[in-house]
Amino acid sequence: MDKQELWQNVLSQIQLQISQANFSTWFKSTAIISRQKGHIIVGVPNSFSREWLEKKYNRLILNILEELSEKVKHLEYKIVAIPVTQPVSVYKEIQSSANQLELEELNLDKTTNLNSKYTFDNFIVGPFNELAHAAGTAIIKNPGRIYNPFFVYGGVGLGKTHLLQAVGNKIHQDFKNKKVKYFSSERFITGIVNAIRNQSIHQFKEEYRQFDVLIIDDVQFFAGKEKSQEEFFHLFNLLYEDNKQIIISSDRPPRAISALEERLRSRFEGGMIADIGSPDFESRSAILKQKVHDKKTLLDDLVLEYIANNVQKNVRELEGALNRLIAWQELNSQDVNLELAKNLLRKTINPKNKRVDFQKVIKIVADFYSLDKKDLFLNSRKKEIVKPRQVAMYFMRKELNSSYPFIGNKFGGKDHTTAIYACEKISQGIKKDEQLAEEIEVMKEKIYAY
Ligand code: ADP
Ligand code: MG
User: Fold this and answer.
1) Is 319 in the pocket of ligand 1 (CB under 6 A)?
2) What is the pTM of this model?
3) Under a CB-based contact definition with an 8 Å cutoff, are residues 70 and 39 in contact?
């Protein structure tokens, strides 16, 4: 592996671990300029970058190099007079290869800000995200007319950006005359701030109200930005009244975004709200298979099963683990077997992270209330059953991060609103009822005890 290839591999790992904004800022114009007997020199564009890489990212870079089996004795950063420009052709070539960096910027459509790699075709649907997906597929048929605004929420790495962009891409493709625009919140806010500073807010609004579909990702960052919220509120109303589609994502539901103006919150709540939870085992397996397919490579089924079983939190981590193994496979021209996979992923998969799953939660709740496991699934309104069932639902939400439709489904095909109600009931109950709070604590300890 030559030094350029090595650096591309490092970058592709870094990209998975830090935000896109940070990645572009700090790593865009970097390269390994020398690599001799364990002495590696990374070229950076300016002293600011050098300092930042040394202080903030040195450990990360070293770890990744080590994982790529590179022996590093000394790592340093050097400012190179001419910016390290990577010829575009190199990236293009690299992009098609499995483990390599996909430079976001290259896939970006300048008019929409959308990345063409996010589509419905490569988006796996399971109980954890089916409500959000269903809403998305309804919107692409008739933007602006149903589910407006569409608000998607869920933790990091669960596919919010992917879904939002897939919706945008599909509308852009099917409705040639519709103007689709995607913004990260940061970018949107910067636009407003600049417009205010340049006294061009009027132009800003005129320009933005032309959009037929406005997508804003991660609106939790609007919290506390009063001026931006105000301008957004006006824009929102203009677009909404014209039946323009507004699509928003956040890491939490509208009511949980603190310092969000009440009128904006009620606007968000006025449309369709869907959450995305953590993927269940089947969905994790399907996602891994999809990614292996996308990357045009192969990986042992046992290895895939191992990852699906052990990397549970979110899709981004799942993808990170997969990429690491694929990179190893490519670099060493040797297949990764189960033993090797366990070894390579030992830092990612911490055995101390006790596995929690649906079965375990059910068993603990049933035992605690001296019920049979199947009692929890009875369609009973008896008090002795209703409460334990609500507790089980609550734990699935809180500890397994399951989506509401998934929970409803597991408990005998109940509606997702039943699951929401159960979780709210217990969350509120804990605050008022000391005994319930105590019971929950005891069960929680058991859930994590073995
Ligand atoms: P979020 O915006 O919620 O933090 P992303 O949309 O950035 O998450 O997803 C993280 C990674 O996981 C992306 O590479 C994305 O393509 C992938 N991903 C997430 N959900 C799915 C899914 N349902 N099917 C396939 N890939 C997914
Ligand atoms: Mg995102």
Assistant:
1) yes
2) 0.67
3) no
Mode of pairing for the β-strands spanning 31-36 and 39-44: antiparallel
Residue nearest to atom 9 of ligand 1 (CA): 159
Amino acid present at 52: W
With a cut of 50, list the residues of the chain below it in pLDDT.
83-104
Tell me what pLDDT residue 348 has: 76
- Percent of the chain as helix, strand, coil, to the nearest 5: 55, 10, 35
pLDDT of amino acid 125: 95
Which domains occur in the chain, in start order?
Answer: 3-79 (3.30.300.180), 105-276 (3.40.50.300), 281-353 (1.10.8.60), 358-447 (1.10.1750.10)
> How close is the Cα of 102 to the center of ligand 1, in Å?
15
Task: Please indicate whether residue 15, judged by its CB atom, sits closer than 6 Å to ligand 1.
Answer: no
pLDDT at 351: 58
What is the residue whose two structure tokens read 């397994």? 400
Return residues with CB closer than 5 A to ligand 2 (ion): 160-161
Query: What are 217's strand-pairing partners?
Result: 184
Q: What residue type is assigned to position 363 of the chain?
A: K
Query: What is the pLDDT at residue 106?
Result: 60
Query: Looking at ligand 1, which residue's alpha carbon is closest to its atom 26?
Result: 123
Which-ligand-closest: CA of 218?
2
- Output the CA torsion 146→148→152→153 (10° steps): -140
Q: Which ligand is nearest to the CA of 115?
A: 1
DSSP class of residue 365? H
CB 13 within 8 A of CB 5: no
Cα separation, 286 vs 159, whole angstroms: 14
Residue 176: CB atoms within 10 A of its CB come to 6
Helix (H) or strand (E) holding 409: helix 404-410
The whole-angstrom separation of Cα 119 and Cα 166 is: 4
**Kindly report the CA angle at 399 between 163 and 420, in degrees rounded to 5?**
65
User: Do residues 1 and 35 touch, judged by C-beta distance below 8 A?
Assistant: no
Distance 152 CA to ligand 2 centre (A): 11
Question: What size, in residues, is the chain?
Answer: 450
